[in-house]
């Protein structure tokens, strides 16, 4: 990130002049970093210039104190009368004469602290000095150190067993580059595992910058091949990734000596900054064998897609740059211990993640507490459990795998009751729900959120078809925009077929007929709209307006548009019966 650097030149130069008391006869000028400056390097060299305003020398008693906000401790950095720079600081002190002066009326200090300042801390400098025969002067100012702390995963919120919302500790880059928190490349075909440690992505354009990321693999019959692999290097010419873990042959199904995949096997590979892994740690090691804490994850799905939430999906006032959705290719195990780590994704200050992680326990996803547990409720005798844990743990592994299958089947069955609920319907069934509701619109539904909003609004929309309020409600639901619908205003144009309207010679234009104008309306939007929003407004309005009404135009960016009242026959202009 670019930083502002100010340096004095040989000519007369004054910059960052600090507070001067009119009674003082000296001052501190040319402070680098300047007072109030932000994003200052953690190992900054501090520049101070003390000058006398009189034809007199400085007093030789200059002192500089530094107080970092991380400790709040005031430390003497320089004492001209007591040996100069103090312990923990080093630099150069130069006493000199200004042009035309006959005494040493300037002191230039350039110094550094031996230890780096803390990330984002405020550093307070207090400078004291004097001018011989004229008294003392002082200056106090501060600056803020750059953020150089790597971001971390602060919170996870599981929406479904396949989708989680991740919150970071600070704002992240949200572009398309490999250092973005949204970066991913999903390959559902042309994936070859090339022994012993290479993955080939047929026809893919790879980047050498991916060496800081991870590649997730799914679909291999060898469990060791599935999961995440650290990318050691990238061969952009041959579209190959060299990984740090071993890739095993799968009887010619995943690979063979020629590196050719059999047609009956389709592998998935995803390059992303994220690793979801089981926590096979010492947690629960001292608990009884029947304890649920002794049951660890059986399977760990890979991240296959990322997206950014909409503002309305986040807490009020939350920063959009701190949140990311992660979609998995399969369900996570319920109520098990997991770790989510990040690699390569950068915050807005260009600090990259290098394995920062968050440990958590997966939610139960409405799994009843009294569900049968193969390992924890005594189905397997305790003596067998103890013997198994003392040996290879194969029985426990089998119980965990079967438990995951049972839990998955229960959850799938449990979700059937929500297939017609717009808010709880499984995401992959939303298109079918909209079809079943008779969705009349053909504009693209690009996000899960807009699909759910449309599904929830269709019933009420059908009840208000042919009304102005129905159009306004649907557009507000989809776009969050309060539009104005009003009668089409011809703005003084001649009415077609009406010879008495206007006078010849007037500057005007030929408008439509009175009958046409009476059955027309226009829409005013409070802001400029995109092409996609324009299509939504047109589709909603033209489908829902009365049969004899016509949308003539959409006027954009009309703040607080005026809605005109029409005049009906035998009614006054105010729509009040005479």
Main-sheet strand order equals 12-18-15-16-17-14-13
Kindly give the count of domains.
3
Name the shape in a single word: flat
Helical coverage, percent range: 10-25%
The gyration radius over C-alpha positions equals 35 Å
Total helical segments: 7
N- and C-termini, Cα separation: 71 Å
Q: What is the structural class?
A: alpha+beta
Short description:
This is Putative tail protein. The protein is α+β, with helices and mostly antiparallel strands and 578 residues long.
Task: Please give a handful of descriptors for the protein shown.
578 residues; alpha+beta; 3 domains; seven-stranded antiparallel β-sheet; 7 helices; disordered N terminus
Could you explain the architecture of this structure?
- By secondary structure, the chain is α+β, with helices and mostly antiparallel strands.
- The protein has 3 domains: 26-144, Sandwich (Immunoglobulin-like); 153-361, no CATH class; 464-555, no CATH class.
- The protein is 15% helix and 29% strand.
- The protein is built from 7 helices and 28 strands.
- It has helices at residues 382-390, 394-415, 430-436, 448-463, 468-479, 514-518, 531-544, and strands at 26-32, 46-52, 63-68, 75-79, 84-85, 89-96, 106-113, 122-131, 135-144, 153-160, 163-168, 185-187, 191-194, 198-201, 214-218, 227-235, 240-243, 268-272, 274-278, 303-307, 323-328, 337-346, 352-361, 484-487, 494-496, 510-513, 520-524, 550-555.
- A 7-stranded antiparallel beta sheet has the order 12-18-15-16-17-14-13, with no helix packed on it. Strands 5-4-3-8-9 form a 5-stranded antiparallel beta sheet, with no helix packed on it. A 4-stranded antiparallel beta sheet has the order 1-2-7-6, with no helix packed on it.
- Strand 4 and strand 5 form a beta hairpin.
- The longest helix is centred in the C-terminal third of the chain and has 22 residues, at 394-415.
- Residues 1-13, 16-20, 255-259 and 563-578 have low confidence and may be disordered.
- This is Putative tail protein.
- InterPro entries: Unchr_phage_tail-like.
